[in-house]
Specification:
single chain
Amino acid sequence: MKNKYRKIFFLTLFFTIFSFSLNSKVLELRINSPIHSVTEEYIVKGIAYGNRINSSLIILKIDTPGGLDTSMRKIIKSIINSKVPVAVFVFPSGGRAASAGFFILLSSDIAVMAKGTNTGAAHPVALMGKGGDKVMGEKVLNDAVAYIKNLAEKRGRNQKLAIAAVKDSKSYTDKEALEGGLIDFIAQSSGELIDKVNGKKIKRFNGRLEKIEIKDKEIIKYDMSWRQKFLNVIANPSLAYLLLMLGLLGLYFEFNHPGGIVPGVLGAIFLLLAAMAFQILPVNYSGLFLIILSIVLFIAEIKVQGFGILGVFGIISLILGSIILIDAPIKEMKMPLSFVLPTSILLAAIFVIILILVVKTYKNRVQTGEEGLIGEVGEAVSAINPEGKIFIHGEWWNARSEEKIKKGEKVEVIGKEGMTLIVKKVEK
């Protein structure tokens, strides 16, 4: 028992020392993709981890074109409620914090940009596409203006420039942002950021002044998990679309050629991956419905022989559905027409080719198996009166005929009863 308690004591001591060794260190997170549910999960968990290990500062490096409003607000809520100060750093040079990234930058305890970066262009875009309800558009805009105004006010930043970025889509260089009072300073690395902020007092979101003291300048990097990295990859709209199309193509092929197994299994896997991607991306369900409808029309064309009409409507439905499938607020989360049109037309052509081959197969007479013997010519290997044997297709068959047939004469198969072929004499 003494040994047991001794082990517990030393393990506790070890983890306590390990925990203290993490204290006062800086935690660094990094995103260089659109803001969606995966990046949201990564950042929120990263900030929670930084609070758990009691780090002295959390640095969030961002290079993003923006993203989804719901994910952005959850990230900002996490930053605001963090006990550990959060510095948002637009990095590297050439990077940006546009749209949702601008909101995240202004919500931070310390806003920093690298030289050659830009921020702003934060005008909200309705997810239901262009030309929507004007009143609803104004409501969305007014809500975004009030939100950025509140963030700027609480953080002591230039409200006028912040509102202009939202209302008029203004964008600012690092120098303009610094001179305009949108950010605290410019830095070229995390190390420079730490040096500039160490020992300084900052104003937290609740108005409390807090001095940042970084005793250990070692930076702990908090990376995405393998699951988050995988989801972040398939969240690419073009890849998600291809997964959907390949999945439907596999199931379509399996439906028309039962027993293939491999196309059906692969199709199901691709559809599952596509479903995972569509949980991240803003999907227009009207577009998804049109794509599924196109497959139904292709199948119906085979079953009811619609003389090509159903197939034409299927092609139109597939192309239209593909164009409106992803309805995102930024172009980086949309599929470009230069990709959608050629891909959807190519896939429509593949569906049509499979359709034509299936129709031809249905129209062709059976040429294999027992049914394929009807109309074939063989040779009587014994006299048939009324029964005997014939040789046909390399096989011996029992045969019966209503006429007398001599051995060696040619016969034609006109029917089949069980394992006996009905034949007649072939006239010379």
